[in-house]
């Protein structure tokens, strides 16, 4: 067991900052408990690790608003514990520069005012974000979350740490060899089609080179990830938002985000990627942060047609 404490230099909301790492409420690799703690299981370059994160109460009259927040106490177990704790500030958003952001629209300014404690995290682990992002290609997030959960429960390993302390069911994602040995029928049972599973297998073979993208500037990192057949700008952006904490890694090619941005910023029911990027131009350099705030605002254009029916390939 190892422990480290980090004190934010301003407003800080730990749970909101870390929630982007989670893949649904039942993600085996990230658990937010009712007592306020967040548990994360990770495969680091030095081995698997689990970490418990707890934010202490803020000083009186401070916290998530304008004053300093309570410190975060991290306790870690496993061969990768020291690696995780060395990078704890980055994981929690210490390297983020939220003061660089200037809201240009009233709905964005309102969310920004209410959630000044949300930071952009940086895990430093590319594959950990790339694989679930590939799973989310061309399907609903609910379907992708089920696939991720099944694969981790079936092929991951229990998170290190003492029984009775580490939450039951917390799992570390498979290592490179295990990913490469998953048979085709197990991908099918997990609801993953041949195209996405093939993309993951190609990425796993190139994992050392892809992990280097975690220390690259945004344009070079996108180029490195998109060199893998099956990985496009959408997947690269979704990965780098988490692994690199890139404030300008805006997601293009998303089914819903352009219309949400168009509706929130301009009251437009229909918008494509080009229109979305035009509306986000005032936020150049901070476009991912802007779209995250827009998602948090929760404004969506009225639905014009029934929700599409989605087919679970695992049942075919």
TrEMBL record:
Residues 41-68 are annotated as: Disordered. Keywords: DNA damage, DNA repair. GO terms for biological process: base-excision repair, AP site formation; DNA alkylation repair. GO terms for cellular component: cytoplasm; protein-DNA complex. GO terms for molecular function: alkylated DNA binding; DNA-3-methyladenine glycosylase activity; DNA-7-methylguanine glycosylase activity. This is DNA-3-methyladenine glycosylase 2 family protein. It comes from Streptomyces alkaliphilus.
